[in-house]
Design brief:
The chain has about 150 residues and is an alpha+beta fold. It is built from three helices and four strands; from the N terminus they run H-E-E-E-H-E-H. Helix 1 packs across helix 3. The structure holds zinc ion. Zinc ion binds next to loops. The site of zinc ion has 7 residues, from loops.
Amino acid sequence: MSRIQPSSPETSRRMAKVRQKGTDAEIALRSELYRKGLRYRVDYEVLKKPRRVADVAFPGLKIAVFVDGCFWHGCPKHGTWPKQNAEFWRQKIEANRLRDTDTNSRLLESGWTVLRFWEHESPIEATDTVAQAVAIAKEKRCTSSPGVNKKN
Ligand SMILES: [Zn+2]
């Protein structure tokens, strides 16, 4: 295994810039969720070995939310493959994508609901999707626990 390192100051600058951008999308989603009255955990460790952290999580309901940066995770709309240091970026982005897939299947196996959004997606629409998943999970939790009377 060779270590992946940024090979130029430009590359490092780009990494820093893109990382910041991803964070903005997460913050937009979080504030929209909060505005909707949803309470969640941020950067929550959903798996210990290997360690995986969800951007937003509802641990009680086992819902993990990820906001994937268009560049870092190779968005089909905005993913770009830089020509400069092409191999470095290809490895980096491919590694992220493989890890995303791996995280999804590990979480699904352990009963989590996984919601993934692209950085470019509307935080309002993403929030609707999350709110829906939360409502479904809450309902499931109610009807599956013994001693609770079902409505209707
Ligand atoms: Zn995108």
